[in-house]
Amino acid sequence: MSNTNNPTERRKAVIFPKQQQIMTVLGENIKLARKRRQLTQQLVCDRTGISRVTLRKIENGDPTVSIGHYLSVLGVLGLANDLTQVALDDELGRKLQDAKLLSDKGA
């Protein structure tokens, strides 16, 4: 049984199946990018300072690995800037904002 009052206990993110599928695809994409560059797992680990276990978790899309570790691996692969594209074109946010702007009276 979990003790929720324990300050040293780590909380885990709630990941739904659709989100896990996205993580799995991300991991597969990272693995393919590494292999295309003909980099071994050991070389990536040496360059990032993470363990091979952690790299395997990343390549499997494990959501318990910190985003910082994902970013380190992406950096070694030359893909770190790809993260700047996340939510760049926020289509839903813009639609919501436009709907509010159109519904405001007196504008």
Q: What does the model show?
A:
The protein has 107 residues and is mostly helical. It contains 5 helices and no strands. Helix 2 (41-48) packs across helix 4 (67-76). It is extended, with a radius of gyration of 19 Å. The termini are far apart. The mean pLDDT is 91.
Helix content: 55-70%
The total count of strands amounts to 0
Give the overall average pLDDT: 91
How many strands, what sense, and barrel or not for the largest sheet? Answer: none
Q: Rounded to an integer, what's the Rg over CA atoms?
A: 19 Å
Quick structural overview:
The protein is mainly alpha-helical and 107 residues long.
What are the SSEs and their pairings?
Layout: H1 17-36, H2 41-48, H3 52-59, H4 67-76, H5 91-103
Helix pairs in contact: 2-4
Keywords, please?
mainly alpha
